[in-house]
Amino acid sequence: MSGARLIGLFDSGVGGISVMKEVRRLLPAEDLAYFADSAYCPYGGRLLEFIRERAFVISDFLLSRGVKLIVIASNTTSIAALDVVRERINVPVVGIEPAVKPAVSATRNGKVGVLATEVTLSGGRFNALVERYGNGVEVFTQPCPGLVELVESGRWERPEAGPLLCRYLEPMLARGVDTIVLGCTHYPFLRFLVEEIAGPEIKIIDTGEAVARQVVRVLEKFNLGNMNAGPGGEQFFTSGEPEKVGPVVRLLWGEPGISVERVTC
Ligand code: DGL
Questions:
Q1: For strand 6-11 and strand 31-36, is the pairing parallel, antiparallel, or unpaired?
Q2: How far is CA 108 from the centre of its chain?
Q3: Which residue ranges form the domains of the chain, and what is each CATH number?
Q4: Counting atoms of ligand 1 from 1, which one is nearest the CA of 96?
Q5: Probe ligand 1: pick from 10, 141, 185, 189, max atoms within 8 Å of CB?
Q6: What pLDDT is attached to residue 3?
Q7: Element holding 179 (H helix, E strand)
Q8: Which ligand 1 atom is the nearest neighbour of the CA of 16?
């Protein structure tokens, strides 16, 4: 790990940028490298073995760029591959999981909804999370095919976005949930729509900031923090087509000058 200075983050696509924004907010001096596996996005309905294989390939690529810590900025990939990636590489790895525990603390009526991908919700890891932290709270889950694609297209203001989200939210709203977990890193970019449909009484929880705080703790623990005073920079990579991915990355990250480099892996 000698000389490694970057924090690497990856996701199936651009969703993990919601986590990267929180990391940047808490760690302005760190250099960040983001990998969007756009050629294989979405992961949400894929086999675990496939997601693990991609996680290995991408972590190897990030290590070759000199990362000192990796954030798996994807609930789906963390559910499928966090343990095996940790076993395989020798830098700290931070994962993300749906915020069941904070939602259980936040609910006033004991009813919580979780929006996530099929892989996330059907994994043993998610069930274990509910068993461990559920504390008698009713947890309603909803897989949301199509939402990731909407964010990846960069056109979530499209007329079909509202009706699609309504279809996913209505069943849990009808059951009376007062707290909704955004259990996929793409969904914070659709938060405005969730708020619009669910109304002001419903609490919405996402995990980006908690993950960023964990990154800060891990850097401190291993004494890996960047001591430079200057602002950190960002690099963006994709397995997809930069002409398509670039505009969405620029939109989400909010800087028009960013370039996205294609990596074949
Ligand atoms: N953004 C990811 C997550 O948090 C992956 C979504 C997907 O590719 O289906 O689950």
A1: parallel
A2: 26
A3: 6-96+209-262 (3.40.50.1860), 100-206 (3.40.50.1860)
A4: 4
A5: 185
A6: 67
A7: strand 179-182
A8: 1
Angle at 147 between CA 143 and CA 149, to 5 degrees: 125
- Of the candidates 212, 158, 222, 220, the residue with the CA atom closest to the CA atom of residue 190: 158
The DSSP code for 45 is: T
Pocket test for ligand 1, best of 20, 75, 79 (most atoms within 8 A of CB): 75
* Nearest-angstrom CA–CA distance, 29 and 13: 25
CA of 16 relative to ligand 1 center, distance in Å: 8
- φ, ψ (nearest 5 deg) of residue 219: -60, -40
21 C-alpha to center of ligand 1: Å? Answer: 16
Ligand 1 binding residues, C-beta < 6 A: 11-12, 15, 41-44, 74-76, 117, 120, 148, 184-186
CA 6 to chain centre: 19
Going residue by residue through the chain, which has 265 residues, state the pLDDT in tens, using 9 for 90 and above: 456 799 999 999 999 999 999 999 999 999 999 999 999 999 998 999 999 999 999 999 999 999 999 999 999 999 999 999 999 999 999 999 999 999 999 999 999 999 999 999 998 899 999 999 999 999 999 999 999 999 999 988 778 889 999 999 999 999 999 999 999 999 999 999 999 999 999 999 999 999 999 999 999 999 999 877 679 999 999 999 999 999 999 999 999 999 999 999 9
The Cα–Cα gap between 180 and 139 comes to: 10
